[in-house]
Amino acid sequence: MREPCGLRERKKARTRDAIVAAAIDLFETKGYDATTIDEIAEAAEVSPRTFFRYFDSKVDVLMGRKDEPEGDIPARLATRPPEEGPIEATRQVLHQELLSALTEDPLFVRQVRIMLGTPSLLAMAREHFHEHLDEMAADFATRMDVPPDDYRAHVVASAVSNTLWTVVARWVADGSDAERLVEMLDEAFDLLATGFDRPAATPAPTPTATGSA
Amino acid sequence: MREPCGLRERKKARTRDAIVAAAIDLFETKGYDATTIDEIAEAAEVSPRTFFRYFDSKVDVLMGRKDEPEGDIPARLATRPPEEGPIEATRQVLHQELLSALTEDPLFVRQVRIMLGTPSLLAMAREHFHEHLDEMAADFATRMDVPPDDYRAHVVASAVSNTLWTVVARWVADGSDAERLVEMLDEAFDLLATGFDRPAATPAPTPTATGSA
DNA sequence: CGAGAATCTGTCATAGACTGACAAAAGTCA
DNA sequence: TGACTTTTGTCAGTCTATGACAGATTCTCG
């Protein structure tokens, strides 16, 4: 599958890699905002116009990678037994192999680190994680026994997606190891599964203390 | 409170209002992306340079309003009894008066409608709802009995914030009335409070397949 | 009222992101 | 080698956004 047969193909792949490498390097040394496309192009030894033939925009160098593991989540969800709740199914999918793929990707952590250090990128990063929200919501709807397009399925899907991003962001910021990521994700998903208001949830506000912890 | 004493103040307010009105009108008629700042400036009868003296960017005309009700949430949370769980406390805050303020603002629905129709704005809209996340998380941490900066408090806060946005977006898209918004929000918050992996109502957390490896 | 300070505005010039058009260069194939 | 396709660079242009300067307006105080 990774067989760029012709000379042309190989050259294209090399150019693309050169642009990404040059961009990430520059982003890390002088910051994302302070890095211009002209500089990236010069460092990659292509013309600025060529940059836009490979990427639609500057953020695409960071977030436009097609090989990212999160994209598989909806497809993998379909393989889980329908009796599993949305949270448990997602947890199992992540455990299967996505988490390891994430932590083993050497570029991933560098990307997230750049995003965390660039306010203007945070919104887009979050949205990036939300890309397959509709597919996830469709899967969740059946697990929750609600109509296919019910807004509650969307609520759950966006909460799950958001949790994933929040946890990963914190994990990268902390610089913890792979085991810790699994641990944090499990704890967070436990919260999602069992609810945020441990004692209450009753219409009559019976403020039982938080003592259940 | 709304006393623009000096002539200068009033003129500034008028200019600002003119820019917002012209922008919203243009966004609705020809779309956000297709509307240039030059056009907004011309319609508002100011120079393009002046536009940037009132707003930092084009999106600021839509999302940079300082009088938006959501900003009060963290402050209002502080007034809720600490025994209330994060979800119940937020629900009460919203019920108090924020929801009515939201539905009664004539510009709000138009703004959200423009955002929903402009993909490039969706990410920013979401982020806009996330603006006071850290404050919310700090409040939630005490209610959850975890350290002040625990990532789990952030997970809950972002889930709540995200739920609010998801529900409001769906509500605007559906064109429902104010009662329906309260109803949807209550249902969604019930989900958050009791957990996502509960098919019907299982108070005792019976970990279905949590026999994880 | 009038002078001076502070503020607001328009014009000009500029940087950076991004796009279309066209021609030169390189790869492909007969 | 020569026709054909793809990739690339150059050029010109639009749009967003910002800094600098000068003129006009408003405010303040004597």
Structure description:
By secondary structure, chain A is mainly alpha-helical. Chain A is built from 11 helices and no strands. The first copy, chain A, has helices spanning 7-30, 37-44, 48-54, 58-63, 73-77, 86-104, 106-116, 119-129, 133-144, 151-174, 178-194. In chain A, helix 1 (7-30) crosses helix 2 (37-44) and helix 2 (37-44) packs across helix 3 (48-54). The longest helix of chain A is centred in the N-terminal third of the chain and has 24 residues, at 7-30. The structure holds a DNA duplex (30 and 30 nucleotides).
Brief write-up:
Two copies of one chain form a homodimer. By secondary structure, chain A is mainly alpha-helical.
Beta-strand percentage of chain A? under 5%
Which whole number gives the mean pLDDT of chain A? Answer: 85
Largest sheet of chain A: none
Encode the helix/strand succession of chain A as letters: HHHHHHHHHHH
The computed structural class of chain A is mainly alpha
